[in-house]
Each structure stands twice: as structure tokens, then as C-alpha cells.
Amino acid sequence: MINPITSGLAVSGYGGLLFPYYDIGPRGRAPRLALVADLHGQDLNGLFVLSRLAAFLRSIRLGERRALRLRERIVIVPTINCLESLDPRKLPQRAGGQRRSLWSVIVEALLALTRAAYYRVNIHQVSLDVEEIPQIRLYSPSDDERATACLFGLPAVIERPMEHEAASGLTHAWREQGGENFSIYAGQSGSVQTQHCETVFRSLVAFLDRTGIISGLKSTDEEELGYFGLRQIVVVSAAQPGIFASPLEVGRWVREGEELGQIYDSFSGKAREPVVAPVSGLLASLRRQPLLGKGELLARILLPDAACREARACFA
């Protein structure tokens, strides 16, 4: 049986919702960092990473890693995918007696748990169809958020407007609380990609070190970081329907004209069209669901800074 005192495990009961979370570190002060993941029950990479991180932090707190010290309090919600049996009739009501949506109550519960933290990180649900390079996404960020995002050391930091459809309700709610807010995307929903998980886990540990939340870590080699604005994202879409197959891995650099994959006829299996990179850059996203319709996303390529200085200037 888990001891909630030594493990940091607790249970939120906000609004009638019950979900476990970790509250680890010195009591008597506000959390410095809050991390949440797997809000829709499909982001297994985020769930896996935050579960590992909680175990790592508990081992420090219990003195099992004598060289390390946890100096700040951290709240971790690896998943809230334990609410399927919740009776909708027990959800709070709006004025007038109308039942509120489960998602709105979840956002409120998470906000109540994390609003006091200065840094907040959402390992966001990624696509079931597309694999993403581990990346930080910032939505209409402050200058402080731009600077702090580099402390994670992930391969890419991408800026988008807050109005972008990918910005979650939790991201909007966090923005109103101040502090600094970050979304991490990595891999593909519905399964665990251990290589991406290792990259994100190491980036979170590096962030804890660089922000002084933990001390005693030996310095590690930093990843090569790219910072990309909206005008540095090139989308490759399908010119026709069919089956798309690619041997490439996300995170590699591609050259203009290099083949990204092939579209095959879904009935005959005959190759119909090669898909080539329209520009040189970092392959950040790649379609893994082979069946596709015309116009659907195949890949995203990020242009290096030297190719788009103007785009960087618009975010200065």
C-alpha cells in the first residue's frame, strides 16, 4: 500500500471529481512547478513520463539519491483518465440548474490544484495520425516564457497565437493566472514511444536543474535548440487520396527535393506519387496513419533561423 505522506500521493475531490496526483517537496510554500498530462486518456507518452518523474522526485525526497536535493514543491497529475465511471448527475450545476460539462469541471479542478504554481506544464494530447518531434509550444508568449522555454532543451520551440485551435481550455485558463505556461508535444497518441519519452523525461529533469528546483545534478550535454515562429512552419499536404508510407524519422533534417515518402493506390497498391520536401529544414511532424484523403497533413517542416530572420523579427 502506498503511504501518501512519504510518496507525495494525494487525491483531489474538487467539484465531486476524484483523481490522484502527486504533491512532492517542502510544505509550507506554494508549488513552484505543476505538470499535467493525459487529459483525454490517449497521451500515454505524457502519462509514462510524469509517472517516471514522480518516482524520480520521490526517491530524492526519501533520501535515496543522496547527492540530490529537492528545494521546491512540485504538483504532478500524470492522468485524470479515472473519471469514466463518474455519474453525470453529480456534476455541479450552473445558475438555473443546467448541468455543466465534465470538461469544464475538469479544467476548474486542475486550475484549483495548479494555479498557485509559477511554472505550469501541460504534456498535451497529440494526434492519433501524426507523430511529433518532442517540442515546446508557446501560445502568445511573454518574453519570460520565450527565455524559459529554452531551459527545457527540447529540439524545437514553436510559437503560435493563443487563438490557435490547438491551444487547450487549460492553456487559456492558466494564462489568466499569470506565471509561465508551456505545452509539450511528443510522439503519437495511443501508444508509448520510448525514445520520445526519454527525451522529454531528460528535458524535464534538466529544467528542474536549471531553474534551481532540484540541486546536485551533474551538467549534461544540451540538445541543439531551434526556435520557430509561425512563418517558419511549412505544411506538406496530400495532393491525392491513398496510402502514405514513409521510412523517415521525425527530428532529422531534410533537404529540398528529398523524398519524404510515397502515396500508393489503396486498391491496387501501385505507387501513385512521391512526396518530396518543398524546402530544407527540420522534419518536425510526419503522418503515421497510412490511409488519407486529399488535402490531409503529411508532414511539417521547420525552417532554420537563417532562412527566415524576418519571421523571428515579428516575435521580437
Q: Helix amount, in percent?
A: 10-25%
What is the SS-derived class? alpha+beta
User: Are there runs of 5+ residues with pLDDT below 50, and where?
Assistant: 1-7, 307-316
CATH homologous superfamily classification of the largest domain: Zn peptidases
Whole-number count of domains: 2
The CATH topology of the largest domain comes to: Aminopeptidase
Structure, explained:
- The protein is of the alpha+beta class and 316 residues long.
- It folds into two domains: 4-226, Aminopeptidase; 233-313, RNA polymerase II/Efflux pump adaptor protein, barrel-sandwich hybrid domain (OB fold (Dihydrolipoamide Acetyltransferase, E2P)).
- It is built from seven helices and 19 strands.
- The protein has helices spanning 4-7, 44-61, 102-114, 143-149, 169-175, 194-210, 309-313; strands at residues 9-12, 19-24, 33-37, 69-70, 74-77, 119-123, 130-139, 156-160, 180-187, 214-215, 226-228, 233-237, 242-245, 253-254, 259-264, 271-276, 281-287, 291-292, 297-302.
- Strands 1, 2, 3, 5, 6, 7, 8, 9, 11, 12, 14, 17 and 19 form a 13-stranded mixed β-sheet that branches. Strands 16-15-13-18 form a four-stranded antiparallel β-sheet, with no helix packed on it. The protein has a two-stranded antiparallel ribbon with strand order 4-10.
- Helix 2 packs across helix 6 and helix 3 (102-114) packs parallel to helix 5.
- The chain is elongated.
- The termini are far apart.
- Residues 1-7 and 307-316 have low confidence and may be disordered.
